[in-house]
Amino acid sequence: MHGHKITNQNNLHFLTLTTVGWIDVFTRSEYRDIVIDSFCFCQHKKGLKLFAYVIMSNHIHLIARAEEQYRLSDIIRDFKKFTAITIIRKIEEEKESRKDWLLMVMKYHANYNKNNRTYQFWQQRNHPIELYSPDFIQQKLDYIHLNPVRAKWVLKKEDYLYSSASNYFNGTGLLEVEILDLPLSNIGYISS
What we know:
The chain has five helices and four strands; from the N terminus they run βαββααβαα. α1 (29-45) packs antiparallel against α2. It is 39% helix and 12% strand. The longest helix has 22 residues, at 72-93. The chain is α+β, with helices and mostly antiparallel strands. Strands 2-3-1-4 form a four-stranded antiparallel β-sheet, with helices on both faces.
């Protein structure tokens, strides 16, 4: 890893995607469902290998890598672009009590980013951290799955619907994920 860029595109990474101004968009299930659907699309069509995730009120954590012929940075860029456009459109067109405020915050942040003309939904950085050892992977896996417990949304991590914790606990979840079987013999490149 170099700075905040993904250099080893097919290696396992911990990423954090955060909304601008830390706006609590994902308190509504319809916006979380857009994220879930987009992850699913990226898994089936864009080469995303997803190992763990959690959707919190204003950010998402995930452990992921790209399949061999794909680039993780491209997948994340496309994911963020699609989810931003889709969620902003939903905010503009549907009943949303926070509509004016949300759009104002996103417009404010777009003014400071030459890549956005009208609104900015996601912060630009993804804070990628390449995962290189079983202990480090386990630490990030626990961090992801315990987020809703630390937020006092659930008592048990496997009870939070918008997380991969239940995949690890009982093999079910909103998304299929690749289960990390720790300790791993070949950490950098995990085959499916």
